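Re: [ENG-882] Designed sequences occasionally contain unexpected residues at chain ends

Forwarding the minimal case from QA. Structure tokens:
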């Protein structure tokens, strides 16, 4: 049974889970349903309007919380890390439907020793141009699944109001000695693109 985390909580992933290497990190969200007209009528257009296109990414950081290079950002434009330890399964343009909207596959056994943290990010594609923000998104979550056993290990629902913010850091995986832990971060930012987020760690 999955452990449900609250913002700021941490959990051991590998301690007591011998052989846990292959993980699916699922991220999900739903667009807030708005009636035509109304407060957001101008943003969405009269007939239900444009979709909010959220994109999931991973930043692979060294022990100083720095990106080594551009290839250490795994996103829809760079689907697989150089080492093969992180893979993005592809872009979802709408967030409609139940379950994960985007997934990232992580093989802990392949993560290079100089990588100490995997930061999971969701940002809104062309947020500024489309005048969109995370106040238009609901039911956002991150979950971690043991892909070998097909069991959900961790689930974290982001319940804060992120109106006006265009990027979210739902969680991060990091080394703790020989083990891996996961932290529920739940931090929102006003970064307008994955490039701006990555520059924070340059």
């Amino acid at each position: 049974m999955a452990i449900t985390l609250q913002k700021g909580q941490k959990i051991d992933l590998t301690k007591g889970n011998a052989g846990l290497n292959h993980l699916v990190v699922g991220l999900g969200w739903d667009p807030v349903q708005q009636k035509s007209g109304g407060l957001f009528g101008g943003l969405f257009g009269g007939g239900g309007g444009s979709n909010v296109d959220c994109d999931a990414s991973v930043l692979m950081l060294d022990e100083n919380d720095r990106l080594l290079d551009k290839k250490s950002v795994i996103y829809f434009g760079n689907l697989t890390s150089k080492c093969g330890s992180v893979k993005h399964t592809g872009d979802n343009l709408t967030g409609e439907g139940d379950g994960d909207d985007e997934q990232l596959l992580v093989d802990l056994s392949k993560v290079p020793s100089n990588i100490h943290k995997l930061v999971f990010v969701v940002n809104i594609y062309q947020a500024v141009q489309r005048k969109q923000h995370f106040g238009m998104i609901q039911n956002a979550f991150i979950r971690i699944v043991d892909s070998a056993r097909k069991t959900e290990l961790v689930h974290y629902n982001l319940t804060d109001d992120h109106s006006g913010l265009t990027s979210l850091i739902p969680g991060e995986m990091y080394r703790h000695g020989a083990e891996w832990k996961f932290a529920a971060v739940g931090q929102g930012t006003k970064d307008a693109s994955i490039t701006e987020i990555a520059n924070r760690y340059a």
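QA comment: On inspection the terminal residues look reasonable. The chain has one domain: 3-199. Proposing we downgrade this to a documentation issue.
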